[in-house]
UniProtKB/TrEMBL annotation, chains A, B:
Keyword Kinase: no
Upper lineage: Bacteria, Pseudomonadati, Pseudomonadota, Alphaproteobacteria, Hyphomicrobiales
One Pfam short name: GGDEF
Alphabetized SMART domains for the sequence: GGDEF, REC
All residue ranges annotated as the GGDEF domain in the record: 322-457
Protein name in the entry: diguanylate cyclase
Xref: CDD domains: GGDEF (cd01949), REC_D1_PleD-like (cd17538)
Catalytic activity field: 2 GTP = 3',3'-c-di-GMP + 2 diphosphate
Keywords: Phosphoprotein
UniProt source species: Methylobacterium isbiliense
Length: 457, 457
């Protein structure tokens, strides 16, 4: 996978050396010799990953990393700190600043390239989603990027897969301070648990008794239901080949035994943030798409949704020879509610009305605002008798309890008229079905309102 | 990258051999011994890629491939045909059936795995988008998958990068029958051309004079503006290492010299389809998100969009000390239009009304339906005088020409009243600005309609 790599180092020879190496690997290289220049390049979106030196005059690498990771527009960029500092405390400081990895010089080139490729690939998975989510933000749907940058990465549900008791207890102890941790010694049971859907990050030992832990990592990365779970491998330092292989398979990160508690905590936190970032992007796009088929006032589906789905339900009903019925509901004398108590009161009544209808319909029924004070309910697999019963129940619930208005300071009586129709063999499409329901509704109004009238079958 | 690989072969030993090899590479393997079983597995979404034998009793591999590639729910699955058939005509038949590659036995394992990894990675890039697009389809926004499966992959804009005249002319000749082809000998100019945005697929020779063609491929794959362009490499058979490297960099496909014309045409067609598939997914998600902020009747933005954007424009105006004004427009005696000519006529008038307003506002102005027959126009960087001029121009254009109704068979006179207000230093938020515009609109109505009234500044 090709990518644009930003190298940040205040020493020109270092910069050139790394630039040459990366260029030979066909990466596109951009460079900066100080923190502010690096941040500007990140903010302009001119790179996919950052290789960052720590010791620079002015703003040091830790601060550059912290800024990248807390700025909404750049927080998604992977950062690898590359430095001569070799104390565990430096390493931890880098990871705490949000770095995805912290490599100590002399750098093992193969390891560096494998890491860069892996991080770039993982980023590419969410790039498309991020672009859509940013469009959603431009439409005014709130800002998932800002929320993601503010995410602390705590209180996650972790799955530790390790069959060495001492090791798993040590890891669970360290992680348990910040997260809810489950330990599983058996890889097959671990996989089942992960597919059940309550795992944010998996920590997997590669040295399971009689089982190649890398296979579990690979399965987690390839099953539909577990693909979204970041995986952290735990391996012996000598197991370099399998570690590289794991990165290539899409595993997100690794730790080498003996596991440093603080490093474990820091790396897992980074993965929790990654998971929540991707989740929030997905939710943001999904939510804005859902809004397109929702009525803003009542929270019911809108006409656009009804049109699309009634057509489908109608066709399916015809195909399978099963009934489908439609209820058309209209609040009685709604205009006079608006006139006497104001538009806000009218809105309150509509919201309540929708709420009560929803409470007396099923999940498979389509409930949609048809416009104004009219609501349509589509009841699949239900004949005229069944649909009339549903309608009568709703009519009773509307009449039975007055509607609170003016923020609950008073209440008014409301009634509803309902027209009901079932699909007939001669119906060419949903329009004639709706038309009959409308005619029945008209009769209900004519006959004195607050009643259910079924169209002749 | 890990993935679920479906192996289809009617001979058990073949199946087992390939299964063992892939499993050692940490792929998850599913298998089928005939076409119908294979199709069922694909349709259930249980695999990410298909390795397909050609010679099977009953439904042969060509037919299985054709069905996978023309079924909307499975068309996105990469298919590699693996067979003992070694005639160019077999190869072409496979590619014509839509196969992403056609490998002849004995299989070079390294090449096979590199190809599988590359195809799986490319698929993963669009998986997230495909999931969103399918949700959009469930909401009733049409079916991008069906459109993509029906795509013929012709009439694309191709860029051939090759500095050997005989070679580029031969390729341009073959491709020119189906596409619009541009040839570019210089890699730098080719990159510029690609960034200019009118290229669907790039075909790049790796043997450019004094330049490593793989670097151009890598640049095309890493720049934001060219990432969406599939790249096909053309290389000498002996250049295996660079071909494998290219696949690893994200290049989509390759051909070996001497280039077979038909194979070139088939492989490029596959890439054109891939590009259009990704584009249509993207458009589908984008379009359904846009619908969430659009008013269905007038095509203007809706209240949701107005609320989000007016807040932003108001804040910016306060911050920069620049004016921002608001026009509130209401069609005069709209109810009587509905009563006299029917609701359809009312809708026609509203649409026309929106159209004329749009014609007299700028791209940076926000024009939104506020509800009923009211429309709001937000004019940034414009004071009260400027806003009044805009309003007066619109008022004149509404009055000047009658509005066609009943499908153009008659026309009626329509007028509009407009209230105008500019942000004042004491305004705490957009609500007070809108409130003043509303008061001004009320005065315009009181004073006889068909006029513009500005709120006192």
């Amino acid at each position: 996978m090709s990518a644009r790599v930003l190298i940040v180092d205040d020493l020109f020879p270092n910069l050139k050396l790394l630039e040459t190496k990366l260029s030979l690997e066909y990466f596109d290289v951009v460079s900066a010799m100080n923190g502010p220049d690096a941040l500007a390049i990140c903010e302009k979106g001119l790179c996919d990953i950052v290789l960052l030196d720590v010791m620079m005059p002015g703003m040091d690498g830790f601060e550059v990393c912290r800024r990248i990771k807390t700025t909404p527009t750049t927080a998604h960029l992977p950062v690898v700190m590359v430095t001569a500092l070799d104390q565990p405390s430096d390493r931890l400081r880098g990871l705490d600043a949000g770095a995805d990895d912290f490599l100590t010089k002399p750098i093992d080139d193969t390891a560096l390239f494998a890491r860069v490729r892996s991080l770039v690939r993982l980023k590419a998975m969410t790039d498309e989603l991020r672009t859509r989510a940013m469009a959603s933000r431009d439409f005014g749907f709130g800002d998932p990027l800002a929320a993601a940058a503010a995410e602390t990465g705590q209180n996650a549900r972790l799955l530790v897969v390790d069959d060495r008791r001492a090791s798993s207890e040590r890891m669970a102890g360290a992680l348990g301070q910040y997260h809810c941790v489950e330990v599983e010694a058996d890889p097959q049971r671990a996989l089942v648990r992960a597919t059940e859907g309550h795992v944010d990050v998996a920590v997997v030992s590669l040295d399971l008794d009689g089982f190649d832990g890398l296979r579990l990592c690979s399965q987690l990365r390839s099953l539909d239901r577990t693909r979204g779970i970041p995986v952290v491998m735990v391996a012996d330092a000598g197991d370099r080949d399998r570690i590289m292989r794991g990165l290539d398979l899409g595993v997100h990160d690794y730790l080498v035994r003996p596991v440093d508690r603080n490093e474990l905590v820091a790396r897992v936190r980074t993965q929790v943030r990654r998971k929540r970032f991707a989740d929030s992007l997905r939710e943001s796009v999904q939510a804005s798409m859902e809004l397109a088929v929702m009525d803003g006032l009542t929270g019911l589906h809108n006409r656009r949704y009804l049109d699309a789905h009634l057509a489908g339900l109608f066709a399916e009903s015809t195909l399978r020879g099963r009934p489908v019925s439609v209820l058309l509901l209209d609040i009685d004398r709604f205009k006079s509610i608006n006139d006497r108590f104001g538009h806000d009161a009218g809105d309150e009544v509509l919201r309540q009305f929708a709420e009560r209808i929803r409470a007396h319909t099923r999940g498979i029924d389509v409930v949609a605002r048809f416009g104004g004070e009219e609501i349509v309910v589509v009841v699949p697999d239900t004949g005229l008798d069944g649909a009339q019963q549903v309608a009568e129940r709703i009519r009773e619930r509307i009449e039975a309890m007055p509607f609170p208005i003016h923020g609950g300071t008073r209440a008014i009586d409301v009634t509803v008229s309902i027209g009901v129709a079932v699909r007939l063999p001669e119906d060419g499409g949903p329009a004639s079905l709706l038309k009959r329901a409308d005619t029945a509704l008209y009769r209900a109004k004519e006959e004195g309102r607050n009643r259910v009238v079924a169209a002749a079958a």
